[in-house]
Amino acid sequence: MDIKKDLIRITSEYLEDTLDYEKLLKTSKEYKNVLNTLSNENLDNEKGRNDIHFNNGKALGSVWAALCIDDLVRTRQFIRGIHKAIEEKKAKKETIHILYAGTGPFATLILPFILRYSKSEIKYTLLEINPLSFNVLQNVISKLGLEKHDIKFVNDDATKYKFDNGTPDIIVSETMQNALDKEQQVSIFYNLMSQGNTDTLFIPENITVSIDLKEKGIAVEKLQRKHYHKQNIIFELSKETMFTSEEIEFQPGKEPKFPKTETIIEKEKLVGFNELVLITEIQVFKDIKIILNESGLTTPKSIKDISENHQGAININSQYVIGTSPKFDLEIL
Ligand SMILES: C[S@@+](CC[C@H](N)C(=O)[O-])C[C@H]1O[C@@H](n2cnc3c(N)ncnc32)[C@H](O)[C@@H]1O
């Protein structure tokens, strides 16, 4: 059996234009099985489960990073977005360079392309902070006989890493949770965006977090985007925002400091709603998006039950703060 051919066949389902959940589930299981077999390493132990904590958020333990593949639509949309970005860049350049920050043990989102494109078409920098994931990844790439490709492995912190392999054309990182809680996506992108140029494509291209009102009386399983009414976008992570926002404070060697945002919701607007939530929306690349509840990354985060609110307008002060557990500091009055 040729494992490379097998993986190309399995992962081709991600690139199909029509979404078929059953096929996607089958693909994900098969993809995971092949990767687990190749790695030949049981990650489900104390070392594999340990997240690594930093003063600007945490990096997932190897077993959790490997499990991200099961977030089916997330995995599909990222792979599709990366594919689209590659095709766009390849139309203009002979050899392109992809930096993947936070590969996990399998470089899940990039492996389909290492298998599909030749050494002369794409070079890679694979960056991972977790030493266990990093070792497993090198082993998997070697077992697949892919060392002949132009791949630079870097066991480093993407929030501090300085480009040492030229400026990448595409930078990929999925190091986030819903509401940008706990993990390091924001610090990683700010570090890498500050070194990229206007042509560098970032995947995801744009992440927004908004404050929404949830309609009351809708069964959980029936909730759709239309039942949430957007009040204010309180945070946006994109190359454009990074380069144009005058309110974000940058100091060398420090994490960016984001402005406080005030959201006022008048009493009349609250009728018919019972909850305040944070909603995360992800534009992976161009028209490829991850919308509400399609992934664990886009589930709404409840911030206040307002079913008993009879006091009048609600005033929410919010600020994204990067610390040991990055999150929105919220004051709801
Ligand atoms: C959510 S997992 C995603 C794994 C895989 N890329 C995927 O999408 O299936 C995030 C990965 O990023 C790594 N990571 C988190 N923070 C990092 C940092 N500052 N520098 C490098 N890697 C980091 C974690 O160790 C973990 O392996």
By CATH's scheme, which homologous superfamily applies?
A: Vaccinia Virus protein VP39
Number of domains: 1
Percent helix = 25-40%
Tell me about the largest β-sheet: 5 strands, parallel
Topology:
Layout: H1 3-11, H2 21-39, H3 46-49, E1 52-54, E2 57-59, H4 62-67, H5 72-90, E3 96-101, H6 111-116, E4 122-127, H7 131-143, E5 151-154, E6 170-172, H8 185-193, E7 201-203, E8 206-215, E9 228-238, H9 239-244, E10 261-265, E11 273-285, E12 288-290, E13 301-305, E14 314-321, E15 327-332
Parallel strand pairs: 3-4, 3-6, 4-5, 6-7
Antiparallel strand pairs: 1-2, 8-9, 8-11, 10-14, 11-12, 11-13, 14-15
Helix pairs in contact: 1-2
The site of S-adenosylmethionine has 23 residues, from loops.
Question: What descriptive keywords fit this protein?
Answer:
single chain; binds S-adenosylmethionine; 9 helices; 333 residues; alpha/beta; Rossmann fold; globular; 5-stranded antiparallel sheet
Brief digest:
The chain is an alpha/beta fold. The chain has helices spanning 3-11, 21-39, 46-49, 62-67, 72-90, 111-116, 131-143, 185-193, 239-244, and strands at residues 52-54, 57-59, 96-101, 122-127, 151-154, 170-172, 201-203, 206-215, 228-238, 261-265, 273-285, 288-290, 301-305, 314-321, 327-332.
Can you tell me about this structure?
This protein has 333 residues and is of the alpha/beta class. The chain has one domain: Rossmann fold (3-Layer(aba) Sandwich). 27% of the residues lie in helices and 27% in strands. It contains 9 helices and 15 strands. The protein has helices at residues 3-11, 21-39, 46-49, 62-67, 72-90, 111-116, 131-143, 185-193, 239-244, and strands at residues 52-54, 57-59, 96-101, 122-127, 151-154, 170-172, 201-203, 206-215, 228-238, 261-265, 273-285, 288-290, 301-305, 314-321, 327-332. The strands form 4 sheets. Strands 5-4-3-6-7 form a 5-stranded parallel β-sheet, with helices on both faces. α1 packs antiparallel against α2. The protein starts with a helix and ends with a strand. S-adenosylmethionine binds next to loops.
